[in-house]
Amino acid sequence: MPSDSANDPPLAPGLYLVATPIGNLEDITLRALRILRSADRIACEDTRQTQKLLNHFGIATPTVSYHLHNEGLRAEELLAQLKEGARIAVVSDAGTPGIADPGHEIAQAAIAAGITVFPIPGASAVINALIASGLPTETFTFHGFLPAKEGQRRTSLEALPRDTAVHIFYEAPHRILGTLADLESVFGATQHIVIARELTKLHEEFLRGTVADLHSQLSARASVRGEIVLLFSPAPQQDSTPKRSIAAEVAALVQTEGLSEKDALKRVARDRGIGKSVAYRELQREQSRR
Ligand code: SAM
């Protein structure tokens, strides 16, 4: 096991959860570098990825893989070393370990075994997207990734409370257009959203506007690339909640304007400022109450 660098104070035994940059290598802290340099081992989500970072900063600490698929087994091994007084650093590929990344299991196990856990702060996409989003920062909920399947994704969106909190999601570039279509359908075309893309990188970009505008902006691009954080605060349901039921409004439009039921429902949803799927579910609820 390597000794601490001559100028570094000795590191206390324990588990160090070390944040690393989310794009810009300047975002590593001096403390993170010292911990990575002085630790006995660095447990990495992907050793090859972390090795690039370590090479860049001239750090020779041995690495060991610690990822989703070997988390349980490797945690036991690391725990045995921690119990003998080792200093182990945990890093993910980028950002803060444990935030939509491995880290919490080993932290939990270490705490249960009476081992000290040290957070070593640094970059995380969720916080940096929020602070520059222009959305209120007092109350927010971070959900990690939305479900990949369309139906489940829509159900998750429909279940969000319509309070003043900002909801924050990580999203993959190949799914963003589908997610925006679902957002439009659940919250209506005028829902304000923010997309933070490629934070801290050369092509960092914040898109702020209605879901319909951003959907058409991104659709017009040849491809959407890069890492994405999606933020929004669901618009409250309209105050002037119509007295009539959705079924009654649909029936009236069918009768007076000769619309199909589908088009009538679309119109009612638009007039109420809600998404089509929300209107449809409400219609189903009304019908089941009859
Ligand atoms: N632990 C990381 C953190 O603290 O942010 C997150 C890891 S998670 C596996 C990866 C996701 O985080 C990406 O798919 C993207 O949604 C978001 N992300 C990471 N880096 C980003 C960046 N530079 N810009 C925008 N989003 C980013």
Can you put this structure into words, describing what you see?
The chain is 40% helix and 17% strand. It is of the alpha/beta class. It folds into three domains: 5-123, Tetrapyrrole methylase, N-terminal domain (Cobalt-precorrin-4 Transmethylase, domain 1, 3-Layer(aba) Sandwich), CATH 3.40.1010.10; 126-232, Methyltransferase, Cobalt-precorrin-4 Transmethylase, Domain 2; 246-288, no CATH class. It has a five-stranded parallel sheet with strand order 3-2-4-1-5, with helices on both faces. Strands 6-7-10-8-9 form a five-stranded mixed sheet. Helix 3 packs parallel to helix 4 and helix 6 crosses helix 7. The longest helix has 14 residues, at 276-289. The relative contact order is 0.11. S-adenosylmethionine (SAM) binds at residues 22-23, 92, 94-96, 99-101, 124-126, 170-172, 196-201, 227-229.
Q: What is the global morphology?
A: elongated
Major sheet: arrangement of strands: 3-2-4-1-5
Helix run count = 11
Structural class: alpha/beta
Report mean pLDDT, rounded to a whole number. Answer: 91
Q: Name the CATH superfamily assignment of the largest domain.
A: Tetrapyrrole methylase, N-terminal domain
The first-to-last residue Cα distance is 73 Å
> Helix share of residues?
40-55%
CATH class value of the largest domain: Alpha Beta
Integer tally of domains = 3
Reading the helices and strands in chain order gives: EHEHEHEHEHEHEHEEHEHHH
Low-confidence stretches: none
Question: Percent of residues in beta strands?
Answer: 15-25%
Heteromolecules bound: S-adenosylmethionine
